[in-house]
Structures are given as C-alpha cells and as structure tokens.
Design goal:
With about 325 residues, the chain is α/β, with parallel strands linked by helices. The protein is about 30% helix and about 15% strand.
Length: about 325
C-alpha cells in the first residue's frame, strides 16, 4: 500500500539523535542472505558522497540534535582513505560518538589507525565460529582474518566490542551455545539478530528465519542469566551469564518490533536520507548539496526526512519485493 507523505504520522527531528552513514555499496564478501551470488552493479564513484559532503551533512545534523553516528557499507573499510573520514568527523563539535560496523576482514590493517583517528566503538559481523561454514555463508571470506581483527580491536581498547550474529535456521542455530561461551571468555558483547526479508531475497523464501524468542529459550537452558544495561540506547535487550566477561543480547525487528523507540536516520552512500531501512521514502541530499544549497535549506531537507519517518516498518504486511535496496546497499 502506497501512502502519501502528508498522511504519515509525524516525527520531530528532535526525537532523532543517531545517524547511520553508508560510505559505500561495495563489499568484499557476498553473504548468502545479503547479496546475490552474481553480485550487484555498484554505483559509479562520482555518485557517492565525498567525505566533505558527508561532513557537511553531519555538521547540520549535529545542530539538529544528532550526536551519534555509525559508519556502514557495504563494507566501510573498502572505501579508500576511510580513516581520513573518521578523523574529519571526530573534529565536529557536539558529536559524542563515532562507531562502525564492519565484517572484520580488513580490520587488522586499520584498527590502530581508526582508534587514533577517533573511532569509539566497533560492531563486527560474524555469523559462525566455524571456518568452512564461514566460507559457505560469505562465499568469499576467511574466518581467521576476522578473528585476528577482533583480537587486535580488543588490544586497541575498543569497548564495548560487539559481535553481530544473524540467526539462520538450519545453518548456524546450532552455534548459539558456542557464542554464549565466547562471552564467558572475552569482554565481547554478542548480539543475535533476526534475519529480515529485503529486496529479491530468495534466501528468505527458503524458510531460514528463527525468532529471538526461540534462541532465548536455548540460552536460558545454558545457565543462570540476568538482564543487564549496556552502552547506548539501541534496540537490543541484553543479558549476562553469571560471572561472564561479556554479555549477549537480541535484536528482534520481526517478532518484537521496536519501531516506536527508533531514534535513527540513514544516509545512503549515494546521498539519500531515509527514515527507515525498509521504507522507500527518501530525501535527496546529494544533488542539492552539489547545486549549492545553503545551511537553512539543508536543515529543511533533514527535518523533512525526520517528520516523514514512518512509525513502523510493514515487513509483516507488504511483499519484500517492495524494498528498493538490497541489504548490502544500505548497511543493515
């Protein structure tokens, strides 16, 4: 069902303090639930936002209440000179937190530079602890590269260090206890994510969904656990095994919608501002920037994105074919 912008419930820009920035649609993996085996046609470099354009958007966003940003991809570390972008953003007054989500393949090459440039936190995507299975899921990756990056990130003092694990029924749901043991041994925060349907995703149609509720039942049988508060105000519900060094949590966008508390906007690598990962509503910032728009005009566009942010996603009602972007193009 298509709805007119003016019929949407209004959100105030002051409600939103978190901006996720996709810096590239390119990735060095081809995960089975994220990208077609044949890959995608990547956008020409000139269509991507420059670092200066990203910084200008962030500065205006900060003036409207944004104080946290996360860099995503594709895979952000394949963007040339990404450390320079981190350094530019870290110098913006009023920005409290800069984090990044990465698949970790290239992390060991950049971890110390990122820390020195001002990156505060890291989320590392890792869906299995088994090398052969990792190759099957990612089609290209070597798990050892990710593990090496995690070790160096801990040594560099990135805390909290989070591991994002997408739940895949019949593929990695037999590793839940192994990930729990990881939190006992290391100061690592594992977050189990429900798999979400998105554009042209045959993987979803094959029935690979498992809910966080089912996983929680497994976790409860492992040992004594209790709820804990962790850094940030994101959607995860977090828990800890008694005496564990780390924590584990759940992000359940399908079985337990958290849209009412969503505090984020999303900036695509080609310069469109979106209020929701799963909505096709978007505001073009790139072209107005390149046409010389002033700060007042840019504020109006960002506020438009905020006020037209849908109150909830409709993945449980609409066909997944309605999604405009593949997951690899918007950064999850």
């Amino acid at each position: 069902e298509q709805r007119d912008l003016h019929s949407l419930p209004k959100r105030r820009s002051s409600d939103l303090d978190y901006l996720r920035i996709s810096v590239t649609d390119r990735c060095n993996l081809k995960c089975v639930y994220c990208m077609p085996a044949c890959g995608i046609v990547n956008k020409p470099h000139e269509e991507l936002l420059s670092f200066e354009e990203i910084a200008r958007i962030v500065k205006v966003g900060v003036s409207l209440g944004i104080d946290k940003i996360r860099l995503t991809g594709g895979e952000p570390l394949v963007r040339k000179n990404l450390v320079d972008l981190v350094r530019i953003l870290a110098d913006i007054e009023g920005l409290k937190d800069i984090s990044m989500t990465t698949n970790g393949i290239l992390l060991k090459n950049y971890v110390w530079q990122l820390k020195d440039a001002g990156l505060k936190r890291l989320n590392i995507s890792m869906d299995t602890l088994h090398e052969e299975r990792y190759r099957d899921i990612t089609r290209l990756g070597e798990l050892k590269e990710v593990k090496d990056g995690i070790i160096l990130a801990l040594e560099a003092g990135f805390t909290p260090l989070k591991i994002n694990t997408v739940l895949l029924a019949g593929i990695n749901d037999d590793e839940i206890i192994d990930f729990l043991r990881l939190t006992q041994e290391f100061p690592i925060h594992v977050r189990f994510l429900e798999f979400m349907p998105i554009k042209d995703n045959e993987f979803w149609k094959e029935g690979n969904f498992i809910s966080c509720r089912e996983v929680m039942d497994i976790c409860c049988k492992f040992g004594h656990i209790e709820p804990v508060d962790t850094y940030g105000n994101g959607p995860a519900r977090n828990f800890q095994i008694k005496n564990a060094l780390g924590t584990f949590g759940f992000i359940a966008p399908m079985s337990e919608k958290f849209c009412s508390s969503c505090n984020r906007l999303r900036l695509t690598s080609d310069g469109f501002l979106k209020g929701c990962l799963h909505s096709n509503l978007k505001i073009n910032l790139r072209d107005p920037l390149r046409q010389g728009i002033g700060e007042k005009g840019l504020i109006q566009l960002i506020e438009l994105a905020a006020t037209t942010k849908p109150r909830e996603h409709l993945l449980d009602k609409n066909s997944i074919e309605a999604s405009e972007y593949l997951m690899c193009q918007i950064g999850g």
